[in-house]
Design brief:
By secondary structure, the chain is an alpha+beta fold. It folds into two domains: 2-129, RRM (RNA recognition motif) domain (Alpha-Beta Plaits); 138-241, Alpha-Beta Plaits (2-Layer Sandwich), CATH 3.30.70. It has eight helices and ten strands. Residues 155-243 form the RRM domain. InterPro entries: ESRP, Nucleotide-bd_a/b_plait_sf, RBD_domain_sf, RRM_dom. This is RRM domain-containing protein.
């Protein structure tokens, strides 16, 4: 997964997607960056609603290829800012046209950003999620973790925070210590068939799913993934909602 993210800035990468409103593959070669790589396709958003989700961001940029959405937190609280990685550099110009347009009742500002700023934000989020921040809300985090530990295991885990570009092979690699088949991995979709950033994994036993919780908040590519004990009923409901 990590290597895929590095290829985002390379001409000809599979992440360069299709040109908005067309059915053909966009060829980035004429997008003249002779002798140097094209810029990393990332924008920064500010003023997002505090209940904003990755799906909301994807719908805000409807028609663009969303590779990743990273929400920015400070002291475990959402700041209303996020970074959005797009399919290829030209899409940054389309994204900037959404500057000061509304998401719900809030107007959202969209700025150009840089690879370094995006990766710095990732490092901060990962550090905070692992208790690296001295001002982290420890009591809240403790009760949150205790709730996970006391939950009954049925062999199913729910995953949250998945990159939109994640595939079943990435999940199998993430849980490489366990025997999984492609049919045991499920990604949830919204009503338009777009990934929601969540998924489910069916393990061979409740013991395996409980042991796999050791991967909670570990990184898949550059994103840290949250794991939750789940059930087959919750899995079936989530899949039926996306149909």
């Amino acid at each position: 997964m990590g290597s895929k993210r590095q290829r985002l800035s390379e001409p000809g990468s599979s992440f360069y997607g299709t040109s908005p409103g067309s059915s053909y593959m966009y060829n980035p070669t004429p997008y003249a960056y002779v002798g140097q790589p094209p810029p990393f396709p990332v924008v920064k958003l500010r003023g997002l609603p505090f209940d904003c989700t990755e799906v909301d961001v994807a719908e805000f940029f409807h028609g663009l290829d969303i590779v990743d959405v990273l929400f920015v937190h400070k002291n475990s609280k959402f700041t209303g800012e996020a970074f959005c990685v797009l399919g290829y550099p030209l899409q940054v110009d389309f994204a900037l046209q959404k500057n000061r347009q509304n998401m719900g009742r809030r107007y959202v500002e969209v700025f150009r950003s840089k690879r370094q700023e995006y990766y710095k934000a990732i490092a901060q989020e990962v550090s905070d999620s692992r208790g690296g921040s001295p001002r982290r809300n420890a009591p809240r985090a403790k009760s949150y973790d205790e709730g996970k530990e006391s939950a009954e295991h049925t062999g199913v885990l729910r995953l949250r925070g998945l990159p939109f570009s994640a595939g079943k092979d990435d999940i199998m690699d993430f849980f490489k210590d366990y025997v999984l088949s492609e049919s045991s991995i499920h990604f949830t979709m919204n009503s338009e068939g777009r990934p929601t950033g969540e998924g489910f994994v069916e393990f061979a036993s409740a013991e395996d799913s409980k042991a796999a919780m050791a991967k909670d908040r570990m990184t898949l590519g550059s994103r840290y993934i949250e794991l939750f004990p789940s059930t087959h009923d919750e899995l079936d409901e989530a899949i039926s909602r996306g149909r």
